[in-house]
Amino acid sequence: MLAPSLVLLIFRQHLAVVFIYTTALFWILVWRIEYPHEYYAGQKYDNPGVVLVFFGLMSVVILTVWAAIRLIVLVWRAMESNRVER
Predict the structure, then answer these.
(1) How far apart are CA 38 and CA 31, in angstroms?
(2) Packing angle between helix 3-10 and helix 15-34, nearest 10 degrees?
(3) What is the pLDDT tens value at each position of the chain, 86 positions in all?
(4) How far is the C-alpha of 37 from the C-alpha of 76, rounded, in Å?
(5) DSSP percent split of the chain into helix, strand, coil, nearest 5
(6) Cα–Cα distance measured from residue 37 to residue 40, given in angstroms and rounded to the nearest whole number
(7) What is the pTM of this model?
(8) Does residue 65 contact residue 3 with C-beta atoms inside 8 Å?
(9) Number of domains in the chain
């Protein structure tokens, strides 16, 4: 659930990512506040909750890909520096 906030923190210099994420999170918040009467107490999942979970999973995938790319670049640079030293 907090993965979108982590994406916002990491990608805060990228205006497009920040705009998309803040718009989506604001939309989910408004959806939860404006239409609470559509959900009854016995309902296990509501639509904003499902969207938020999906958005969170998508954020985890984005963070995983970002971390993998950063790791590959780090290893690549370490290998290049080892070649230069020889």
Answers:
(1) 10
(2) 150
(3) 778 888 888 888 888 888 988 888 888 888 877 766 666 556 666 677 777 888 888 889 988 999 999 999 999 988 888 776 66
(4) 54
(5) 80, 0, 20
(6) 7
(7) 0.66
(8) no
(9) 1
